[in-house]
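Worked example 2:
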Amino acid sequence: MKPADSSVPLHPLLAERWSPRALDPDTELTDKQFLALFEAARWAPSWGNTQPARFLAGRRGDETFEKLHGTLSRGNHGWASNAGALILGVARRTNDEGEQLPYGEYGLGLAVENLVLQAAAEGLVAHQMAGFDGQAAREAFDVPEGYEPLVVIAVGAQGDAAELPDRLGEKENAPRSRMELDRIVFSRAWNEPTF
């Protein structure tokens, strides 16, 4: 684990959540763990209760997992094969009448965060990836117009960083870092720190 170095104590789920690439290739998600991820996502807030988040999910060894794995970029393809599950996050962009649904990406983001935190609560880890071919995912799963594939999430148990290629192993072992709090929260003017 790499707990967050925060200015005040955070809830352990937040402080201990991170996105490792080293995943245990022998860990399988139980049915309960797998279902809990999507129950957590289902209860995320959304604009106007539009609930724009949709997911395509597969567990290691099944056809859905293999199809999702095939859409990953070269940099993600190797390590992600050890995930217990791969999940495609899709945002609904239009309603049943074909009208634009605002904030679909935001709604999907909230649902994914719930999913990731539930994974942590289950003793698992999750790594979100933009490095995948959205068009290939659309074609592989017949994702209809009005829906946009935006993220793939690898979920599993943390593995051994020594098993990663050198460059990824270095990233895995590097300290966690974040921008300073006074660079993201402002009070009266854009560049006037609150703290």
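The longest strand covers residues 147-156. The chain is about 35% helix and 15% strand.
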